[in-house]
């Protein structure tokens, strides 16, 4: 019978044999078909049986203060002698960790093919540090995706992750609970390759701590037609990872070089120039630097926006086509 959680024997062994423990969550993010299900060993004991791709354990207790060996074996393993990868670790008592398995097991069929490896993030969280926020840990686990940025465009928060590369973690983002739109761009931030919704408010995730992983292949055709690239979410409770819904990139997006707002800084009104584009079909949202919406609505017939009521500071003005972001610009209110 399949099991995706630590077997009771390991939990009992851990609790009875060691006074010091650490909290650990394991996430399976290896998109290689040969690793669709793996067995995980702690020292010589089977800890996870048939642990499936894009599945996470809950946070559970493992021995701390002594070296333990975490081993990854094929799903049909018969013992610790079948392990493909062994990582010795010494956990710190009362610390929390997230461990992610990335990489490729097969010798052919994948390009590039970085070997299977375990990425360990200490100082993990099981809940947000502020109950009004959602704390998000970001991990790049897509073997054929380049260094990327993550740019929030729904509320105009801008670049939230800068230049993250394969196997890296971005430390926790402490985000106000809201519904976000995330653009995955190249490292220059100028070319958007994918867009996703992150409906944190709609899902009622106040106070949650989550891990968001880049998973799968940008080019499945070069990777044995494996699972396509996406953003997936692991919760501290474990289980199957949740896919963030993708948003098609709009073919009607403005060329940002043809879009301007003036004056900037502004005191009373902002004028919008969009190079002969009829703005009456679009709406506008203004957000502060914390991502809070301070104004939203239709664009005036004369292509102006009243900002007289705003406090002094820096804001983002975002033009929307329905729910799709067209362009976003920062401005200063004096």
TrEMBL record:
InterPro entries reported for this sequence: DUF4397, Secre_tail
Domain Secretion system C-terminal sorting: 261-331
Assigned keywords, A-Z: Signal
Residue intervals of the DUF4397 domain: 22-105, 136-216
Extent of the signal sequence: 1-19
Presence of the UniProt keyword Transmembrane helix in the record: no
NCBIfam families reported in the protein's UniProt record: Por_Secre_tail (TIGR04183)
Protein name: DUF4397 domain-containing protein
Organism: Aequorivita aquimaris
């Amino acid at each position: 019978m399949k099991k995706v959680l630590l077997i009771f024997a390991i939990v009992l062994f851990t609790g009875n044999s060691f006074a010091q423990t650490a909290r650990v969550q394991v996430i399976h993010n290896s998109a290689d078909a040969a690793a669709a299900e793996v067995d995980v060993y702690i020292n010589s004991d089977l800890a996870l049986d048939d642990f499936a791709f894009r599945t996470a354990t809950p946070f559970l207790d493992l021995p701390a203060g002594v070296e333990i060996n975490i081993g990854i074996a094929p799903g049909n393993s018969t013992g610790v002698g079948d392990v493909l990868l062994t990582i010795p670790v010494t956990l710190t008592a009362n610390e929390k960790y997230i461990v992610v398995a990335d990489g490729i097991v097969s010798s052919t069929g994948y390009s590039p093919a970085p070997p299977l490896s375990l990425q360990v993030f200490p100082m993990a969280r099981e809940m947000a540090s502020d109950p009004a926020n959602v704390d998000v840990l970001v991990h790049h686990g897509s073997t054929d995706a380049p260094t990327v940025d993550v740019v929030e465009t729904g509320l105009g928060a801008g670049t939230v992750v800068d230049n993250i590369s394969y196997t890296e973690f971005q430390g926790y983002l402490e985000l106000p609970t809201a519904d976000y739109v995330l653009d995955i761009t190249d490292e220059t931030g100028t070319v958007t390759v994918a867009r996703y919704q992150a409906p944190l408010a709609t899902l009622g995730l106040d106070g949650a701590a989550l891990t968001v992983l880049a998973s799968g292949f940008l080019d499945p055709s070069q990777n044995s037609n494996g699972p396509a690239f996406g953003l997936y979410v692991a919760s501290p409770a474990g289980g199957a990872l949740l896919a963030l819904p993708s948003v098609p990139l709009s073919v009607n997006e403005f060329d940002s070089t043809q879009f301007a707002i003036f004056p900037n800084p502004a005191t009373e009104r902002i004028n919008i120039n969009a190079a002969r584009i009829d703005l009456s079909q679009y709406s506008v949202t203004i957000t502060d630097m914390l991502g809070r919406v301070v104004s939203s609505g239709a664009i005036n017939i004369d292509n102006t926006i009243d900002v007289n009521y705003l406090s002094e500071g820096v804001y983002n003005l975002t033009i929307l086509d329905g729910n799709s972001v067209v362009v976003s610009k920062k401005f200063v209110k004096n």
